[in-house]
Specification:
Layout: E1 4-11, H1 17-29, E2 34-38, H2 47-50, E3 55-61, H3 67-78, E4 82-86, H4 87-91, H5 98-104, E5 106-110, E6 117-123, E7 137-141, E8 145-148, E9 153-160, E10 173-183, E11 186-191, H6 203-216
Parallel strand pairs: 1-2, 1-3, 3-4, 4-11
Antiparallel strand pairs: 5-8, 6-7, 6-9, 9-10, 10-11
Length: 218
C-alpha cells in the first residue's frame, strides 16, 4: 500500500523552507510515497484528516501556530502517524507550544559559531537499524545546541564546544544530532542537520534522513 506523507513548510526564510520541502518531497517520492506539500499551517486544522497520513514532515522555523492546530498534530502522532524532520524546521518550529517540544524531543537554543562551523558528527556505537554501516563524518554548517528530552534514543552526536563563547567554562559535552522517540503509537525522528538542502543532500547525512523518514512512517 502506498504511504501518504504531508510536508508543511513556512516560517523564517533563512532556512529556505520551500527548498527544503522540495528536497523532502523528492526524497519521499523516490520511495514511492504519495506526497502532499503545503505552505499553510491551516493544513494542521483538520484533526481527522491528519490521522490519515502515514508521515508528517514539518519544515517550519520560528512560526506561531493556533494551539488547537499544534495539538491536532500531537494527537495524530499519538494515534500512529509518524513525525520526522530536521534542523529548525521541526525543533524550532513553535517556541511557545511546550507540548510540541515534548513530542519532538528537543528545542534549539543556540548555534555558537553560526554557519560555517566545522565539526564531526559521531555515529553512536550501537546496532540500531538507522545507523548500521554508517561512519563518523565531518560537516561545515551550524552546530546546534539543543535542550533535549532524556527519553530520546540518540543515534548520532557532536562534541561541544567547538566555537568560542560563554559556554566554554562548562567543558566538553556530547550534544545529540539525531534521535528517535515514541509519542503514543507514533514514531518520531529528528536530525539537527539541514540548515540548507546542500548540507544533507549526499553521503551519510542524506542516508540518515532517508532512513529516519522511512522509520518514522506509520
Amino acid at each position: 500500500m502506498t504511504k501518504k506523507a504531508l510536508i508543511v513548510w513556512g516560517g523564517w526564510d533563512g532556512h529556505v523552507p520551500d527548498q527544503m520541502a522540495a528536497f523532502f518531497e523528492e526524497l519521499l517520492k523516490a520511495e514511492n510515497y504519495d506526497v502532499t506539500v503545503s505552505d499553510s499551517l491551516a493544513s494542521f486544522s483538520d484533526a481527522e484528516k491528519l490521522k490519515t497520513y502515514d508521515l508528517i514532515v514539518p519544515c517550519i522555523t520560528m512560526e506561531k501556530i493556533e494551539e488547537e492546530w499544534a495539538d491536532n498534530v500531537c494527537e495524530a502522532v499519538s494515534a500512529g502517524t509518524g513525525l520526522a524532520g530536521c534542523h529548525g524546521g521541526m525543533c524550532d518550529a513553535f517556541r511557545e507550544h511546550s507540548n510540541w517540544q515534548f513530542m519532538t524531543g528537543g528545542q534549539f537554543v543556540a548555534h555558537p559559531g553560526n554557519d560555517g562551523t566545522e565539526y564531526t558528527v559521531c555515529i553512536e556505537k550501537c546496532d540500531h537499524e538507522l545507523i548500521q554501516g554508517l561512519e563518523d563524518f565531518s560537516i561545515t554548517t551550524e552546530q546546534y545546541y539543543m535542550h533535549v528530552d532524556p527519553a530520546i534514543d540518540v543515534l548520532a552526536y557532536t562534541m561541544f564546544p567547538v566555537a568560542d563563547g560563554p559556554h566554554l567554562p562548562n567543558g566538553p559535552c556530547r550534544m545529540p544530532v539525531a534521535w528517535t522517540k515514541r509519542w503514543g503509537e507514533g514514531n518520531v525522528y529528528y536530525n539537527a542537520l539541514g540548515h540548507i538542502p546542500e548540507n544533507i543532500n549526499s553521503g551519510a547525512a542524506r542516508e540518515m534522513i532517508r532512513r529516519g523518514f522511512l522509520w518514522a512512517t506509520r
